[in-house]
Amino acid sequence: MDVEAEIDRLPIDLLAHIFVLFTSFTDLAQASGVCKKWKQGVKESLARRHNLSFAGWKMDDDSTARLVFHAYNLTKLEIPRSCWGCQITDAGLLRISFAKCISNLTSISLWGLTGITDEGVVQLISRTRSLQRLNVGGTFITDESLFTIARSCPKLETIVLWSCRHVTENGLFALVDQCLKLKSMNVWGTRVPVECLNNLLIVSPALQIKV
Amino acid sequence: MSETDLAVIKPEMMKPYVWLQTSDDSIQQVEQEIAMFSPLICQEIIQKGMGSSKNCAICLPQQVSPAMLSLILDYCRFHQVPGRSNKERKSYDEKFVRIDTERLCELTSAADSLQLKPLVDLTSRALARIIEGKTPEEIRDIFHLPDDLTEEEKLEPLRNITADPRIRLLNRLYAKKRKELKERGRLKNVEVEEEHVDERSVDDLLSFINGNDGDPKGVKTSKNKKKNRRKKEQQKNSSLKEASEMNKKEVNGHDIRHQSSEAERISETSYLPYAEDDTFSPKVEFDDGDIDDEIDPALKEKIDREVEDFARRLNSDWPERMQELLSSGQERKTMLFTTDGFLRRQACMFSPCVTVFFLIHHMLSN
């Protein structure tokens, strides 16, 4: 090519800035297939992202882990169950837990991921240090996960345990006892008795419990 | 200037100006208030005191051409006016970025170099809208970009986006293409191997041995000759085991196991077309079947006699001769003798015609 294309003169960081504005992962993938510079730009755009949401996308362990690995500066990660069904498993959460961004995450949503268990959640949460909001509603986690959350997330402010039917009062007490900044808790659909919830309010009067 | 003249002067005429120098060295006078929209220009004015006169004009980055500067100043002038509604601003912005892609890219680059974040965001969003929903080929056409990705890089499965049925189909297509590429690669390798075969005629070989620069005439080998060659290769392979066993025996009172193993190693690692075990008896046997058929009997007899004579002479003082050969850069060519006293070649690096030439050359030098 004799004349350099005008867009080719843009520095990679500016290309990355353009790619950050893409809302679709399809477009990102297509852009990475244009040329080597754009491929690098796409990687850098992922590294710049602070929020990454896979809502509405049919993601599997491999693709999710690869994207999260490139997103070094991520603070908010959403991997909710989409209309396509859940394909994320404990193996995926384990791989994600080794990503650089995990210790900086302030918000994680694993809403409705029926393929995950305590094993994956414990691996992921035990590596977070700055978590403030956690949504594990609609999953099959037990108190084991809640004990890990209580130990690893001292800054936790909001937790959604919507329809987590295997959670008991022991796990909730551990949360309230150790997460001193906890302000809000959604326990709709759990099997925890009302008396227990009243006891939680005695321990932490400022706590908002959504039933 | 009289008081009446001063009264006529409007407030906007009192505005201070700054001098800006663009990439083509042209200098423009711009209202300071508008120029200060750019943090870069602002820094130059406040910290360095530049732009106050034509002589100390602020040098703008290379990316800022006069055309781009005027566009940027128009944008700044509009947004600098107070009291405009958000709707008005949005409408202006939409119209502002309705320019051809080349100019839009240039504008993005210029705005970025002047650190005008709102304009960078605006133009970047416009570029993102152009790119969205396009295939890599379409994007390359729009922006005139080079296609510098390798076939393998292009055919990488797009794993991040399995939700899109188009991508699933694309991945299947890519898988097919990858298979085709591999097959093509295999075919190329086969062709390369075939090219190694020495297809030269006897005349060419003889002229090469005699040192003449005759024009080579390619003689195509017939099917029978090719069959003949295959048969000879099979015979040769069957005799390999015997040859290796003989090599491991002590010859002339010297244990030459280490030499034979070295030769075997060379023959294994060598990819040259003639790097096979050949036994040179007094009758010089060529690998090429077609050469055997077409060689002049009288000449053949003469060569046989000379080689036999050379082999006999060589046999009398072979250890010293071996040393000589090895020291003269022939280490890769391990020469051994069988109990009959005939020369055996392990992993010869040359084609048969060159070997004959080598033997005759040595004989003549003695």
From TrEMBL, chain A:
Coiled coil: none annotated. This is F-box protein. SMART domains: LRR_CC. It comes from the Eukaryota. Pfam families: DUF7885 (PF25372), F-box-like (PF12937). It comes from Glycine soja. InterPro entries: F-box-like_dom_sf, F-box_dom, FBXL15_LRR, Leu-rich_rpt_Cys-con_subtyp, LRR_dom_sf. GO terms for cellular component: SCF ubiquitin ligase complex. One of its GO terms (biological process) is SCF-dependent proteasomal ubiquitin-dependent protein catabolic process. Residues 7-51 form the F-box domain. Residues 95-177 form the F-box/LRR-repeat protein 15-like leucin rich repeat domain.
TrEMBL record, chain B:
Residues 117-154 form the SKP1 component dimerisation domain. Residues 18-80 form the SKP1 component POZ domain. One of its GO terms (biological process) is protein ubiquitination. Pathway: Protein modification; protein ubiquitination. It comes from the Eukaryota. Residues 220-233 have a biased composition (Basic residues). SMART domains: Skp1 (SM00512). Residues 206-265 are annotated as: Disordered. This is SKP1 component dimerisation domain-containing protein. It comes from Glycine max (Soybean). The gene is LOC100794666.
